[in-house]
Design goal:
Blueprint: E1 10-15, H1 23-31, E2 36-42, E3 54-57, H2 73-86, E4 89-95, H3 97-104, H4 111-118, E5 125-132, H5 133-137, H6 139-151, E6 155-157, E7 161-166, E8 169-172, H7 178-193, H8 224-234, H9 237-242, H10 256-259, H11 267-277, H12 280-289, H13 298-306, H14 310-319, H15 321-328, H16 332-341, H17 344-352, H18 364-372, H19 375-383, H20 393-401, H21 404-413, H22 448-455, H23 458-466, H24 477-483, H25 487-497, H26 506-514, H27 517-525, E9 531-533, H28 534-543, H29 547-559, H30 568-571, E10 574-576
Parallel strand pairs: 1-2, 1-4, 2-3, 4-5, 5-6, 5-7
Antiparallel strand pairs: 7-8, 9-10
Helix pairs in contact: 2-4, 11-12, 11-13, 14-15, 16-17, 16-18, 18-20, 19-21, 20-22, 22-24, 24-25, 24-26, 26-28
Amino acid sequence: MPPTESARALRILVASSIPSPIEEPFLSTLIAQKNIAVRSIVDSAEWKTSTPYASIPNVSTDRSQPCRPFSDHDDVHRTAAELCAWADLLVLAPMDANTLAKMLHGVTDSLILEILRSWDVSKRTLLVLGMSTLMWENPMTKKQISKIRRKWNWVRVLHPLLWTFESKGKRYLPWEGREELMGAIQNQLDLMTLGQDVDVSMGQTPKHSLSLRPAAKPSSPLPPEIWSMILDFTGDWELAKRLNVYTTLPTPQCWLRAASKEGPHSFMDKLEWAILAGTLDDVKHLFNTHTAPQWLSSQAVRIIMRFAMVPLLYYLESNHADLFWASFGHAFLPDKASAVFGRVEILEYWRTSPTFLNKEYTVDAIDGASRAGFVHILEWWRNSGLPMKYSEAALEQASSRGQIEVLEWWKRASMRDDGHVRTSGDESEPEGSVPPTRKPLRLKPGKAISFATQAGSLSTLRWWVTSTIPFSHEDTVAKLASTHGHVDILDFWQLLHGEKMIYDNQVLVGATKMGHRDVLEWWKKSGLRVEYKTCDIEEALEDGVEGVKGQQVRRWWALNGLNLGVGTSEWMRTKVLNQS
């Protein structure tokens, strides 16, 4: 079972179409970074089988050409598809002029070009060109780069790697794009992890208080002292500062410098503070008196998203298009507004914005809204007129989190006229003229029952049993409940199934390994026939938890007939708990 929630690494695919002096140092730097996973494609002539990162050669897809180390050319095509699905970010560093021209014309005669043709354009690409100064200054190069910037908005062109030719051969010019490239990667990492520390249990703040404040402070029906008490009770310093309400709450670490007497120093610090504590006019003034950055900091983006600052988004979209796209482009707005911040205002802005005509978003939007318990977000998507993209994770994560209201919403949304729900295998369509937004959704239960069991959510398990929705993986309940120490679920499951309860000898192995003496005792008193092998229990004790819990299960087994000093045949013989 995968964990119900985890902060995974940013997966970067680095592709080099030519050998260069920047490739090895760049990859070494990436590998040393936390929260980054790297795979690379290198020039076939430079490919090495032993590297500290997963590296494969840029082989030809021409069937008349060799494709080692791949078994055949179908394997090359399959690898391209797998890499496209795996990677969050594609870094082309460097790409030569020949590959650039082929990319723009859709040619797929190499692994890199096959990946470029298959790439999901909702995911970003960073491009470092590598060519001679003569090629770089040629009008064709400028025309190609202009096309990328105008038409390929998922590709960001960075500072190139250039060289000249002298009597001694090729001479590389100093590459000035290292900091820019690493900054762009850090920006992608910040955007991906944005919201992982957001506490969605704090609820939503009233809409009228969450946009950028007008210059004049609106009157409040409550005395300031009452507002201070309310916001002190919430423990939300940022909300108090956003509403300009005095608070005794301690200043968060990330705001100490900006909130100090000296005030913010750098432009980005000043911008973050203006976004949080100022007005839209304050933000405009900063942009009018400073050079706009390439992208916003993760803190600035978080505040804009958290407080649904739609007027500021309109301003950035209209006046700083490159900055806006670098910070909020592709699927970022719908995915984060749905899964992390629960902001319908942001979604409505995105739906009507001319910048997002393609309406790119991923399954993370609806899956994440289900995980977070945002029923209002699910309802917005249902009524938006847009296709509903979601996976099994929607119901699995909602079940893991015990989001009963979300599960009820999915059940209602999948209900057909005959009173039955529409499941993933149901291809039937409702009769008559039904608006697309009201067609029953297909439920994808996946391993929801397993996720609920692992999380110990008995209420969710009860809901699934009484929901009349078909689900699978019932055979995992006893094992997972035993491994994770959920005796109440074992009680419920036995009451429901009696002697027909499905389980195997792993229920004792898992409980032993994880140190759950109460689970072992439950199985002993259950009246069910539970088998085990001495060899399995010995291995579980050796690999299991230590400390008090480990000692408790060892003592329990000693009192219940476990004898490790037996011969091989007896050691591997199947036994029954409490029977000799």
